[in-house]
Specification:
The chain is an all-alpha fold. Helix content is 55%, strand content 0%. Helix 1 packs across helix 2 and helix 2 packs antiparallel against helix 3. It is elongated, with a radius of gyration of 25 Å.
């Protein structure tokens, strides 16, 4: 078929700006390639099988859960800091510093 001939409507074309594609649920975000150590990749594979989803969706879910956990730890840190800010005992202050360090750094 020569290039000058018109194509059938809707075939071989991508939707332009402002046009919707009926089979897509929502606009997909940016795509990234990541390298995972083999032990982590196996854990993600097991998780994906457990929740019956693809590796890509499993990675996205685990990243989201990790980010939520980090935000929760930060909120907990500031909540406890406000609750104990008025504490004057130096030993208690040192204990709190150690506790907050563990809470923030996960160690």
């Amino acid at each position: 078929m020569p290039q000058s001939q018109a194509r059938a409507p809707g075939r071989g074309r991508k939707a332009g700006p402002g046009k919707s594609e009926p089979n897509r649920r929502g606009k997909a975000g940016p795509r990234y390639s990541v390298g995972l150590p083999s032990t982590v990749a196996r854990q993600v594979e097991r998780y994906a099988e457990t929740v019956d989803t693809s590796m890509s969706k499993a990675i996205a879910a685990l990243v989201r859960l990790g980010l939520e956990n980090q935000a929760n730890r930060k909120r907990e840190f500031f909540k406890r800091l406000r609750e104990n800010l008025a504490e004057d005992d130096p030993k208690e202050q040192e204990r709190m510093v150690d506790e907050f360090r563990t809470l923030m750094l996960g160690r």
